[in-house]
Design a protein that fits this description.
The structure is a single chain. This protein has about 80 residues and is mostly beta strands. It has one domain. It has one helix and four strands; from the N terminus they run E-E-E-E-H. The strands form two sheets. Strands 1-2 form a two-stranded antiparallel ribbon. The longest helix has 4 residues, at about 65-70.
């Protein structure tokens, strides 16, 4: 019987791992273009889940706190 192969069984498979409110997620590293360091924005009048904006290659991108957006409890690291 032939064994099914998955791209995840490849030892060279690389992924980005992150946590959100105690849950762990991963993305294939090839799906990530870059990681941009966050800098605190000036205070603005936006919904509470909008943390601010960053400029990426001349495009203004909103920073959304998914924990706040989906009403998840704070994690231990946030305390």
């Amino acid at each position: 019987m032939k064994k099914a192969r998955s791209k995840y069984s490849n030892p060279d498979f690389q992924f980005i791992r992150f946590r959100l409110s105690g849950h762990e997620f991963g993305l294939d590293v090839s799906a990530v273009r870059e990681i941009i360091k966050y800098r605190a924005p000036e205070a603005c009048e936006y919904p509470p889940f909008i943390e601010g904006f960053i400029r990426v290659r001349s495009i203004l991108v909103p920073l959304i706190d998914l924990r706040k957006r989906f009403s998840l409890p704070p994690s231990q690291l946030d305390s």
